[in-house]
Design brief:
- The protein contains eight helices and no strands.
- By secondary structure, the protein is mainly α.
- α1 (2-32) runs antiparallel to α7.
- The longest helix has 47 residues, at 36-82.
């Protein structure tokens, strides 16, 4: 359950990145040109670039973590064969640091290493649960979908809402989207919902203001 919640929370944050990245490009381009096709192509290109960039980054990050965990497990397998007493002392120290007496910690360490030696040492030393490795392809696909899903809202709003309603409609779509991602991230992470929503809305508004201003400046040259 913990791993699933972490994946969901990462997906929500990926959606938030997709929203803010795409809206930044949309606002900059829309200020510089009224051509809807140009705005749409620019926004779509950025959405795809953002989604694939996040997916590749997530794949590389999870792969590196998985490699590091595998290396730690291999190292502990060697230590368990060649230096079991050192491993016992390491597990013993782990429990003593949590307020358990030396005698009891020694007893716990010896019993655990007799029953589940590798699981015990990798968990106490590195916080690794043996066999619980996140699949880098799953992480990459999750980031790809979440970033694309987030970016599609401002893109559709800017592209489909007609005339004088385009700007207020897009601004409203962005505010609602970032408020939703703030709410979901707070719920999944047991955080403060109001704080997360307000923070996300402020960031969304600042993103729109900054890129609108940049578009105005570029339009003057």
């Amino acid at each position: 359950m913990s791993e699933k919640l972490n994946t969901l929370r990462a997906g929500v944050l990926g959606s938030n990145d997709g929203i803010l990245t795409v809206v930044g490009v949309l606002f900059s381009v829309a200020v510089a040109t009224p051509n809807i096709f140009t705005i749409f192509i620019a926004g779509l290109s950025d959405l795809l670039a953002c989604a694939f960039s996040m997916a590749s980054g997530e794949y590389a990050s999870v792969s590196s973590q998985r490699d590091a965990e595998s290396s730690a497990v291999n190292n502990e397998q060697v230590l368990l064969k060649n230096n079991i007493e050192e491993e016992i002392q390491s597990v013993k120290k782990y429990y003593m640091n949590r307020g358990i007496s030396e005698a009891t910690s020694t007893e716990i360490a010896r019993e655990l290493l007799n029953k589940k030696p590798l699981e015990t040492v990798v968990n106490t030393k590195y916080g690794i649960q043996l066999g619980h490795y996140m699949n880098p392809w799953h992480a990459a696909f999750s980031s790809l979908i979440s970033a694309a899903a987030g970016g599609i809202f401002p893109l559709l709003a800017m592209s489909l809402i007609p005339g004088i309603y385009r700007w207020p409609g897009t601004i409203g779509a962005v505010i609602l989207s970032v408020a939703l991602t703030g709410y979901l991230s707070a719920k999944l992470g047991d955080g403060l919902v109001k704080t997360a929503v307000v923070r996300n809305i402020i960031i969304g508004i600042l993103t729109m203001i900054i890129h609108y201003t940049l578009g105005k400046l570029m339009n003057q040259f």
